[in-house]
Amino acid sequence: MRRQTLALVTAFAAIAVTTGCHTQAPDPPDFGYARSPGGGLVVAYPICPGTTVSGAEIYADDDDFTTLWKAGGPRSPDVAQGLFEVGNDVSFGVQTRPLRGELPDGFYVSVSERAAGEEADGRDGWIDLSRLEGARLGKDEFMTYTGKAMTRADVNAQLRCA
What is the Cα–Cα distance from 67 to 34, expressed in whole angstroms? Predict the structure, then answer.
């Protein structure tokens, strides 16, 4: 009986911990992406209020997960709120790995976050540039990996923020 009680208490504790975590997104949250007016790639990262983006990295889907671009030090409030352009110094002040050449059709984006003065790893997302071919996106709309067009607000709304 004691073992059963202990097992039930452990199970309820696990449920309480999981359900109490309001910053967990759907599995996984879609990043938004679109072409900038200059032809670059703009990423809309899902983020909760009170959290900021401190850096971003693009890496290839190869055996070594080769870093293609890495930058930090957001230059504007929009960038700190998760809206940034890949591969140039418009969005981030420090590029520790500048982008060389074209982006592949598919790659991962990894974001670093800052919340309550603490630096942490954010979420990773898959970008499939082939989804942008022929897509008709409206103003403030972004393509997603799942093929849905979302506004910036929709991208953020995927998260359940506390």
Answer: 21
